[in-house]
Amino acid sequence: MIIDLRSDTVTQPTPAMREAMFTAQLGDDVLGDDPTVIALEAKAAAMFGMEAALFCASGTMTNQLAIRTHTKPGDDVICDVLSHVYQYEGGGISVNALASVSLPQGERGKLTPDLIRDYIYSPADPHKPLSRLVVLENTVNKGGGCYYTVPEIAAIRQVCLENRLILHLDGARLFNALVETGDPTEAYGQLFDSISICLSKGLGCPVGSLLIGKADMIRQARRYRKLMGGGWRQAGFLAAAGIYALDHHVDRLKIDHARARKIGAMLERLPEVEEILPIDTNIVIFRLSANHLAADYVEKLAAKGIRSVTFGKHLVRFVTHLDLTDQMITELETRLSER
Ligand SMILES: *Cc1c(COP(=O)(O)O)cnc(C)c1O
């Protein structure tokens, strides 16, 4: 039995999701008439009380489309140094948007109004790029799955309004935050200019991400998606999985969170584990003592049938997801404590 904790992206579609995909009505999304894609986009927009949505192949694509759409070449994007848009999107901010980037260092990857204010350039200073866009991430992957509260975001929104900054949310794991806080999706629709959510993380779809925002912005993003080669034809197969996931796989994220906390308790008993980041959602990041390299440790775990990833020289990440079972969690405890 392999216990795969590398990411919540490793899930396989459930039988019911496959059935929804197999029976989906299809059209040609590039021609704009795939009914299942249209239904998914309408559902996502309505969910957040926003005007429109665009179904794309990946979270990287929806984030990059947002950044490209919101900025002009030479503009500056403010995001935490740990953020996915900076760390894990191939330098896309500079390549796709020709924008520069300012990188405040928040607590566990979370920005605050003060941190953002420190990085806003004066539009009157010709030496500086124009600060244009702020990107928040919720939950924060590199922060160990921590999340923002609505009042925290509202305070950031206020700074953005005062300084004419656009606010985008990388919500790849937004639903993991929402099942913990109980905040309504509509509140997010009011606080952000655009939101990207991933369907292929905790929600268990094989592929897919949605960019949600104003109708004009989404029209522009659709143009750029085509330019990037992201137009897809009978995408309704994948959109059907998305609709199924939004209907059936959101509330169950709480199970993933409970399992993550359970795994945290197991790690606490291991002598080689020095520190565990607080476990707020489905991500467990732990630091090994100085004489253990993460790369070696991950290899050792792999030999015991436990898959994980390194997250720094001494840091290892586990992520819980839909395809884990109680039996795997019990078995994990046994294997972790084997010397
Ligand atoms: C996974 C992830 C993304 C998108 O990744 P893709 O693999 O391109 O879908 C974006 N932001 C965060 C925080 C993520 O964890």
UniProtKB/TrEMBL annotation:
- Which organism does this sequence originate in? Spirosoma taeanense
Q: Which residues carry this modification: N6-(pyridoxal phosphate)lysine?
A: 201
Record carries keyword Hydrolase: no
Q: Does this UniProt record's set of keywords contain Lyase?
A: yes
Q: What is this protein called?
A: Low specificity L-threonine aldolase
Similarity field:
Belongs to the threonine aldolase family.
Give GO cellular component annotations, separated by semicolons: cytosol
The record's PANTHER family line, in alphabetical order, gives:
L-THREONINE ALDOLASE, L-THREONINE ALDOLASE-RELATED
UniProt cofactor(s): pyridoxal 5'-phosphate
Q: Name one GO molecular function term.
A: L-allo-threonine aldolase activity
Q: Where is the Aromatic amino acid beta-eliminating lyase/threonine aldolase domain?
A: 4-287
Q: Which chain regions cross the lipid bilayer?
A: none
Q: Which Gene3D superfamilies match?
A: Aspartate Aminotransferase, domain 1 (3.90.1150.10), Type I PLP-dependent aspartate aminotransferase-like (Major domain) (3.40.640.10)
* InterPro entries for the chain: ArAA_b-elim_lyase/Thr_aldolase, Low_specificity_L-TA-like, PyrdxlP-dep_Trfase, PyrdxlP-dep_Trfase_major, PyrdxlP-dep_Trfase_small
Q: Could you tell me the superkingdom of the organism this chain comes from?
A: Bacteria
GO BP: any one term? glycine biosynthetic process
Q: Which Pfam families match?
A: Beta_elim_lyase
Q: State the UniProt keywords alphabetically.
A: Lyase, Pyridoxal phosphate
